[in-house]
């Protein structure tokens, strides 16, 4: 057992089984042993690679998207430019470099970063020092007013609940202990039916054995942003992997050194993520007052923003090795068999704004 697994086992013996949401919260954020509290997980030397780490073009295009959105908003000055889960600061560093061509926007923006990891905050402070960022533990302390918000692979790590359909109905799947005292999934907790109202009516008659996942934390975020964007001019961009429509399926996964691991095997030592339910997220935001655009496939979004043209510019002065790396990176970002289709892009905006760049008018 990892140190955190021992701590969780003691808690389960004392207080009973944990929801999967509680397990994820502890595994990722425990102050002493949480995955994101003590490591830099990004890149080839870490556990996974995100789009900004694959190519500088990704962040550059997002930066230009932000500049175009600012123009659509009527060029408010000042404007909050916020990122949720900025990682090493790679995306924002590339975005700010591209934003330099939009001098008025660069002067108007005030950079705010929502990050809970002390180690990653330090990396962001080093990389983004020239932008004088302000850090937050959550969006609750972001200043009110005009807002442009970016979140790449943020929603997938928010805690979720799982429910499993058995012959008698739906029951919440939790983390308990097996006969050997090891962490194990269970669905026989005394109050396992307490939260089943969260299951959409359309999925209540699913087959025995099916699993449904829901993220109250994502819905809460969507409602908060929907309310804010319904009041002030603004726009929020979410890029993540997941499904467009709510559906059953067990997508919870653990990753270490770019390979899958059993979800309960090493809490604190592995990353935990699950597919995003874009339909549920969009519905919560729209109900609160935002207009929703998308989701659209990442490949189509980046193509619309001009990834081919930017790659062509870089290729003109590239070495043979750089050409091979750039072509490989673009394939990974765009190809339907890689990240081009599984990853999707969704925008939340003030109702008065027209279609953001990368989204077709009438496709909301």
Which terms would index this structure?
single chain, 364 residues, alpha/beta, Rossmann fold, eight-stranded mixed beta sheet, five-stranded antiparallel beta sheet, 12 helices, 35% helix
Helices and strands in order:
Blueprint: H1 3-15, E1 18-19, H2 20-29, H3 51-54, H4 56-72, E2 79-84, H5 90-99, H6 103-108, E3 109-114, H7 118-127, E4 134-136, E5 147-152, E6 161-166, E7 169-177, E8 183-186, E9 211-214, H8 216-231, E10 234-243, E11 253-256, E12 259-261, E13 271-273, E14 276-277, H9 278-288, E15 291-297, H10 298-305, H11 307-315, H12 320-334, E16 343-349
Parallel strand pairs: 2-3, 2-5, 3-4, 5-10, 10-14
Antiparallel strand pairs: 1-7, 6-7, 6-9, 7-8, 10-16, 11-12, 11-13, 15-16
Give your account of this protein's structure.
It is a single chain. By secondary structure, this protein is an alpha/beta fold. The chain has a domain at 37-159 and 214-305 and 343-349: Vaccinia Virus protein VP39 (Rossmann fold, 3-Layer(aba) Sandwich). It contains twelve helices and 16 strands. It has helices at 3-15, 20-29, 51-54, 56-72, 90-99, 103-108, 118-127, 216-231, 278-288, 298-305, 307-315, 320-334, and strands at 18-19, 79-84, 109-114, 134-136, 147-152, 161-166, 169-177, 183-186, 211-214, 234-243, 253-256, 259-261, 271-273, 276-277, 291-297, 343-349. The strands form three sheets. Strands 2, 3, 4, 5, 10, 14, 15 and 16 form an eight-stranded mixed β-sheet that branches. Strands 1, 6, 7, 8 and 9 form a five-stranded antiparallel β-sheet that branches. A three-stranded antiparallel β-sheet has the order 12-11-13. Helix 4 packs across helix 5 (90-99) and helix 8 runs parallel beside helix 9 (278-288). The N and C termini lie far apart (47 Å). The mean pLDDT is 94.
